[in-house]
Amino acid sequence: MEMETVLIVIIVLAVAAYGTGYFMKKKHYQTINNLEQQKFDLMDTSVAETIQNVEILSLTGQTEKNFEQWKDKWKQIELTAFPDIENLLFDAEQTTDRFQLIKAGKSESRSRELIESTKNKIKEIQLALNELLKSEEKNSQAIKKVEEMYQGIRKKLLTQSFSFGPALDKLEKKLTFLELSFSNFFELTSSGDHIEAEEVLKKVNYETKELNDAVTTIPSLVKEISNEFPAQIQELKEGYHELKDVQHFVFLGDTLTSDIAEIEQDIEQGEKLIKQCETEKVEKLNSIIEEKINHLYDVMEAEISAREAVEKEQPILAKLIEFVNKRNQQLLIEIDRVSQSYTLDDTFSQQTKDMQEQIEEIQLNFETFNNGIEKNQAVYTVVAESHAEDSERLAQIEEKQEKLIKQLADLREEETEVKEKIDDFEFNMRGIKRYIEKQHLPGLPEEYLDLFFVTTERIEKLAKELNKLKIDMTEIKKMCEMCEDDVELLIDKTEEIVDSAILTEYMMQYANRYRNDHPQIGEAILESNELFNKEFQYKEALEIISTALEVVEPGSFKKVENQYYEEKSRTAK
């Protein structure tokens, strides 16, 4: 029984091994067939046909050398790569037949790598050969565009030769050299050296574009150098002569003659550069020349404009100087007059003197420039600038004068206001006195009487100060403010005394109802009465009686107080 089992196991294992081997061999055969097909695809490329097409072109020179190199690479693939691939695939098939599957796998892997590298080489060869086939057509199309540009240049040089000035000879020489380059290109193309022809074409294309740029740019540069700038220089010379010698203008740091000569040298340099077709240098130089010419125009125009401004502003400034000077004299007189009645701050006189010095300085400047204009020695831009500055200074002086005039005028108004306030103070003091007397109080607190008499004395002192021949309004205004504060305080203290006295009487009357039942109320009434009638401390008297009454009847003080102020309000109406 055991032998039978062993035999069955051996048979099963043998069948399994055979099955596994069969499937693995089948997989290798599939891989080999796939690689075989890739080899056939590589061998079936059109490289050989392309080589035959290129050979028909009869190439020469560098093109022929390139072609031979690619052709040799193809031969190397045919003679080496394809046989190597075939041998590797054959080895893989043989080793698979012999069940040497690991060795077969290595051959398959090497053949796969060789197929891939060969495929890349074939692509590279095919692309290079295609470029060789297209090179003639590509060069032909490119040269047509260059020829069109060349013909355009040639036509311009023939029909518009006058517009190129001294650059014409150089341009024609460049055109001749360009023709030689064209001939060289066509010779290389005819001989089949398309690669070398392409290099020549690049050079021809660059030179043609460069020449076309020059032909396009130079006419405008020639126009500036040969026509516009010389005409402007002539205009500057004539204008300078007219302004300086005929109209007697003076220019500050006059360098116009040397500046014009310098520009003429720049123009000569520009003509030399034009002759050599140095367009970039000419463009830069022309920009510099243009800036210099514009600067000289600006200098002349500035003097002309300044003269017009001076002629217009001169009479206005003269009148303004006269007006401000006259008003300053009047201000000095007014300060002297006002100082007879008022003590003035030193700044009044000092400011007026400072302004007078400035006016005299401006007057001197004005006369100096006028004298220079009469003698044809004045630079109008300098005069105009000075006049503008002096006009601004005069405007500031005028503003200061107005401020001082107002301050002087305000002194009289301030004096009148203080007089009116003194009348108000005296009226209020009489009213306070009558109001106190009307209350028939037993007397007044000493501190209140002191305040009353001090306030009265201050008002009298203020009135005396105001009646002096020469008054100090600064000091008087301070005294007036003190009197205002004293009168206001006295009014408040008067109201406080009267209110406290009347409320004390009301509270005593109200407290009498509790006098028999509450002994402390009787004591409070006696103490309050003592303060009221003998010491005249009405506020303290009110405090004593109201405090005692609040203990007996809380809220009583507030009730009496409200009734008092309501009655007072009705009486006031």
UniProtKB/TrEMBL annotation:
A GO CC annotation given for this chain: plasma membrane
Q: Name one GO biological process term.
A: septin ring assembly
Q: What is its main location?
A: membrane
Say which domain of life the source belongs to.
Bacteria
Could you list this entry's UniProt keywords, alphabetically sorted. Answer: Cell cycle, Cell division, Cell membrane, Coiled coil, Membrane, Septation, Transmembrane, Transmembrane helix
Stretches assigned to the Extracellular side: 1-5
What membrane topology does the UniProt entry give? Single-pass membrane protein
Q: Name one Pfam family in it.
A: EzrA
Q: Which residues lie on this side of the membrane: Cytoplasmic?
A: 25-573
Keyword Cell wall biogenesis/degradation in annotation: no
Task: Extract the InterPro entries matched here.
Answer: EzrA
UniProt-annotated location(s): Cell membrane
- Coiled-coil-forming residues are 387-428
Q: HAMAP family under this entry?
A: EzrA
Say what the protein does: Negative regulator of FtsZ ring formation; modulates the frequency and position of FtsZ ring formation. Inhibits FtsZ ring formation at polar sites. Interacts either with FtsZ or with one of its binding partners to promote depolymerization.
Which family, according to UniProt?
Belongs to the EzrA family.
Protein name as it appears in the record: Septation ring formation regulator EzrA
Species this chain originates from? Carnobacterium alterfunditum
